[in-house]
Amino acid sequence: MSENRRRDFTEEFKNQMVQLYLSGKKKSVILKDYKLAPSSLDRWIAQHENSGSFKEKDNRSDAENDLIKLRKENQQLKMENDILKQAALILGRK
Q1: How far is CA 62 from each of CA 12, 66, 67, 68, 93, rounded to the nearest angstrom?
Q2: Which sequence spans correspond to the domains of the chain?
Q3: Cys-Cys with 60: which of 53, 64, 73, 83 at CB 3.0–4.6 Å?
Q4: Which DSSP category does 87 fall into?
Q5: How does DSSP assign 30-83, residue by residue?
Q6: Are 51 and 57 in contact (CB under 8 A)?
Q7: Under a CB-based contact definition with an 8 Å cutoff, are residues 62 and 54 in contact?
Q8: Nearest to 19 by CA among 52, 50, 51
Q9: CB-side exposure of 7: number of CA atoms within 13 Å?
Q10: Digit-coded pLDDT (tens) for 42-92
Q11: Is the dihedral of CA 27, 28, 31, 32 positive or negative?
Q12: pTM
């Protein structure tokens, strides 16, 4: 496996790593034994503590969810505005 290739881990694996940590196994040992990046294990532990889920959408703050919603609304409004501009141009030619 290439050194730079991103590895995907199952939810079951992530949970097992968190349980190892919670049962008292040192982070350094888990990282070494399973060749994990410290940031990955830290993120999984935080997600487990936060929501019990490893899905990003389940771990977003209210502010992050609001921002995503507002960006989608903004994109929709821009598209509608472009359609109205085109319609005005077409109607203006008649």
Answers
A1: 27, 6, 9, 10, 47
A2: 1-59, 60-94
A3: 64
A4: H
A5: HHHHHT--HHHHHHHHHHHHHTS---GGGG--HHHHHHHHHHHHHHHHHHHHHH
A6: no
A7: no
A8: 52
A9: 13
A10: 999 998 888 878 777 777 888 988 999 999 999 999 999 999 999 999 988
A11: negative
A12: 0.56
